[in-house]
Design a protein that fits this description.
The protein is about 50% helix and about 15% strand. The protein is an alpha+beta fold and about 500 residues long.
Length: about 500
Amino acid sequence: MNAKVSARRSNPAAAMVARGTLIAVAVVVAFRGTVLEITEDIARGSFLGYLMLMPVLAGFAAIGIALRRGGELPIHDRQTDVIVGLIGVALSMAVVGLLVGRYRYHYELLHLDVLAAWLFLFSACVLVFGLRPTCRFWPVWLLLFGAAPLVYGVTLAALGGGDIAAGVVMILIAAVTAAIATGRTVARGCAAAVIALAVGGLCLLVLHAALPAARGIVYQAVPSVTGLSAACAVMYLYQWRGGTLEPLDRPLAALTAGQSYGALALVVSGAAVLALIPVYEDYGIESPEVAGLTIMGSHPVPPGWQLLSEDEYPWARRYLGSESTLTRQLIRAEHGNPNWDKESRRRRVVVDTVRGEDPYSINNVPEFVLYRLQQPRISPPTFIDLGHGVTARLNVVLDDRRLLSWTWLSWNWSGAGGSERIALIAADNHLSDAEFPPLQPHFTAYLGNLTNQLFRGNAVVLDSHSYAVEADLAPKDEDLLTTVARAMVGARTS
């Protein structure tokens, strides 16, 4: 037995800590942009705070599996470890470099970079610890990948949204974690899950009664971690009743896979490459503080236009937050303009407004997700200065299945009382019965669109940056919407 193997076997705890530290540092370096983005979102009240808790929950589950780990055959193949780990690192690079950019308008909802981070973590563990030891903890990996931001967001919306619903979702995740951590048998796992649900639910009720104005991260963290800790403690004491309470009743097993400097180099180089891949940031719009702007009441109708209808959608609170509102105004020009229609027909424009208490709440759900679009394509953005420090984004949106298209102008701003995201939509069909995109989020159709886009590629790609923009993606009502937008901005800031 050589000196390296002897050292690894004589002090396995030190070897585990050293390798684990290397993996943790590599993940943070590779996804430092994602970590900073999520940290900023949490500070603004995002539901993504649960992502900071997932390593804690995964740690509970991994410790539980390790404590009941039995003997392991000394079978390992470092070549297989390197091959599998290298494939995983390459896939994580592909997700960050290709898919995040392709789905840029859905970034806040999908957060594919988070899934890439879990994939890189798994691959690094395979390279450093070996494939067999890493796969022994497969329930932990399923927990991390299963609690994806999209799954969490859809579940949160199904429960009505808000801090209480966010706490409930985390308690459910904590119950699954408790079952994994203590599941020596199915009965034990179910008992632990029930305890986590009961204690976490009681803690959530007490927290809501005592601190109703607490931040969302508090509702997510305190009940879930309390319920999980209580379940693990009860099941641990039950398992070791009448005996010693020492967590390990056997010597700590040596690491199965030997140290490979080549594998370590792959982890470090993979992290370096991932850190250099740029994350697309031009999908969103800044929400500047505008002097004199008050966020309240309905939009005044711009001069030369008349209000035809105004509707509010109560279901929006489930997706955007309990303090948010979504309204649609339909306005029509009082007189025809040959620059907007060759027959001087009176054009109609839809004004959709998402209103919330802060800039993050209005972007909690990406703009195009709120609409029922069958097979959407979105043109490259054009940014237009509306004055008073407000910049709008202009897109052309096509629904290929229904053969409809619209010119779309959106901007965000903040003022006294909160923030708004305003979208002006003009139909390329100038007739009085022209259809506008309906406000009706439909996650089944949404997921279908994403899948369709993934497999068909550039045929339906969103926001293509090709220099040869298709003729049907050229904006036709830029002057119309810019005129209305500047009139609205001027009226609200005067």
